[in-house]
Amino acid sequence: MNKTFLQFLLVTLFSFSTMAQESKHVILLSIDGFRPEFYNDPSWNAVNLQALVKTGTSADHMLSVFPSYTYPTHTAMVTGAFPARSGIYYNQPVGSKGDWHWFTSAIKVPTLWQVLKKSNLTTSAVEWPVSVDKDITYNIPEIWSDAYPDRITEPRKYATPGLIEEIELNATGKLDKFNMDEEAFSMDDNSARMAAYIFKTKKPAFLAVHFAQADGQQHEHGRDADSVKLAVAGVDHNIGVIMEAVRRSGMAENTTIIIVGDHGFSTIHTVFRPNMLIKTLPAKFIAAGGSCFLYRSAGTSKANDASTVKAVTDSLNKLPKDKRKLFRIIDRKELDKMGADSSAILALAAIPGTVFSGSLAPAKVTNHGPGTLIQNNPLEGVFFPTTGGHHGYDPNIKEMHTGFIASGAGVNKGKMINEIRAVDIAPLIARLLGIEFNTPDGKLVPGIITNKKL
């Protein structure tokens, strides 16, 4: 079957969702590390994504939150709240060296799960970040441990009782540490099979699914490696699996599919360890990829913040010009506008290619390649070379732009908008399902849903 004919079939599949249709089911599919070129550039092998663009509304780009990290952004999408309000500032709690933000109890504002439950609507989540929650009707949460880093051992403890076993019997076969390993392409395949089974058999009003493989490949190899193209083709196939489940369920006319990402990606070459410059000061940076945030030390009064800020900025501004240009300083006023953690004193935002490390120890640099200083320099090991890819940067940087596509019931057909934000996803889903949800920061972006839904 050639690509053109396949696209025709896919367009036909979802083109019946006209203005007259009402959404009773919303499927939110998150591709970790989803970049707009995956659907805007035909050279990417993403037939399903590109077909959904034709049958729905897409965005030139979607803005993440700051830092542009997975857990804060996924939380923003189901709460309509920036990190300052949601309380999910990073993937891990501030100061944590182990567990991530697994439990929705850490979220300080209402979630879609809670709002929909109050309206007696069923919900589901598959491998969604920050989703260990009794309020989700059919749930297979994302959670792991040092002892069990796979994505099935720990979820068995917190999933809806009996759900994983039912899915193994009827859809996936036995799930184990090998086929549910984040480094294995099979994990996204199994997540799609789980989601497809849940949708067909449980018929939830809201289903959220997280696909992780594209993120892992970009972290390891940078933006444009062959393995990234393979991961994108794989997740595109998995979206097709879910689309097919929607068609076979008989619910397609009343179903909306929304594809989102949590951040873009930058290929990286340099690491900067700013804490090495401020060891004697009563403050410490917490690194978040392409950004880092300064916090006062325990027992230090807020009254000392002004002097701390001056000392830190003076130290940073003394760096050689070729190093100082690698980042900018973000003051507290700008952090407030960005909705970042209100406890941070200031932040640093790197240019693409540079990332931060919170380590206080100098790196053992043995290869003086691009990004390092000359041998015997006092800053040796403060800046050093690296490879791969990362995120966490200012979400307004083009490389951090992520993607958005909506298609199906209640959505305009063949339209492109310029921009939508992660915090705008929750209001969109609520409106499609006819539910009131007054989110703290999100707004209903015009141009996506049909006039009938406005």
From TrEMBL:
Keywords: Signal
Secretion signal span: 1-20
GO molecular function (one): hydrolase activity
Keyword Signal on entry: yes
Keyword Signal among UniProt keywords: yes
Domain of life: Bacteria
Alphabetized InterPro entries for the sequence: Alkaline_phosphatase_core_sf (IPR017850), Phosphodiest/P_Trfase (IPR002591)
Record Pfam families: Phosphodiest (PF01663)
The protein's name in its UniProt record: Predicted pyrophosphatase or phosphodiesterase, AlkP superfamily
